[in-house]
Design brief:
One of its GO terms (molecular function) is ATP hydrolysis activity. Belongs to the ABC transporter superfamily. Ycf16 family. InterPro entries: AAA+_ATPase, ABC_transporter-like_ATP-bd, ABC_transporter-like_CS, FeS-cluster_ATPase_SufC, P-loop_NTPase. This protein is an alpha/beta fold and 250 residues long. The protein has one domain (2-93, 163-249): Rossmann fold (3-Layer(aba) Sandwich). It is built from ten helices and twelve strands. The strands form three sheets. The protein has a six-stranded mixed beta sheet, with helices on both faces. The two termini are 35 Å apart.
Length: 250
């Protein structure tokens, strides 16, 4: 599915990722944990194709194809999806208008016909109901005036409608109360499939109680320094990141 080889990334002449390597297999949910400043969010942005990051070395292969050679929109069309830690508000752009444009753009790249309005409405309403998204939210500008939990549900709604191959969740649990965390997690779990993989970036075990990972990787100093099963997250919850911060200071 996704293979990252020796990825070296700078931003504003500062080294953020330092020879990072990681493999996420088909159908796998991989969690990335680590102290602040270890490069977790940078990794998510580089995978998605955000500008301003200078890739000095390495590859990111999606099904064997190096996506670093693609623009961000081409990566999205290939099946990459990023759920942001802080989803953007877009005043003046209606939520339904945005969703329809995104879905039809994806269909166009696949050589498929655009959705009719009735088919589009049925798909959106069915997915929104599962995420307990109020129909009134769908009538508003995208994310404008939404609570943190509502913004995260809207991200998962987009993910459900676009059906990506590889989903990156950048601290999706940030700002969620218990109920919102449950709803968002249930939405993610409903999308788990053999032909879809997830990279879940989080600081805390609480998200991984709901989205149980197959593998857990610890990042420090811009690379993966330890990997294991889901029990590794429990170890980190108990001991914290002091060991990895000490290594960074060494």
């Amino acid at each position: 599915m996704l293979e990252i080889k020796n990825l070296v990334v700078n931003i504003e002449d500062k080294r953020i990722l330092n020879g990072l390597s990681l493999t996420v297999n088909d159908g796998e949910v991989a969690a990335i944990m680590g102290p602040n400043g270890s490069g977790k969010s940078t990794l998510s942005y580089v995978i998605a194709g955000k500008e301003d990051y200078e890739v000095l070395d390495g590859e990111i292969l999606l099904d064997g194809e190096n996506i670093l050679e693609m623009e961000a929109d081409a990566r999205a069309a290939a099946g990459i999806f990023l759920a942001f830690q802080y989803p953007l508000e877009i005043p003046g752009v209606g939520t339904m208008t945005f969703l329809k444009a995104a879905m039809n753009a994806q269909r166009k790249t696949r050589g498929e016909e655009e959705l009719t309005t009735p088919d589009f409405m049925r798909q959106v309403f069915a997915a929104a109901d599962k995420l307990e998204i109020n129909r009134e939210m769908l009538k508003r500008a995208l994310n404008v005036g939404f609570s943190g939990g509502e913004k995260k549900r809207m991200e998962i709604l987009q993910m459900a409608l676009l059906s990506p191959r590889f989903c990156v969740l950048d601290e999706t649990d940030s700002g969620l109360d218990i109920d919102a965390l449950r709803i968002v997690s249930e939405g993610v779990n409903a999308l788990r499939a053999q032909n879809r993989s997830f990279l879940v970036i989080t600081h805390y075990q609480r998200l991984l109680n709901h989205i149980v990972p197959d593998t857990v990787h610890v990042m420090a100093q811009g690379r993966v320094v330890k990997s294991g099963g889901k029990e590794l997250a429990l170890e980190l919850e108990a001991s914290g990141y002091a060991e990895y911060r000490a290594n960074e200071a060494a």
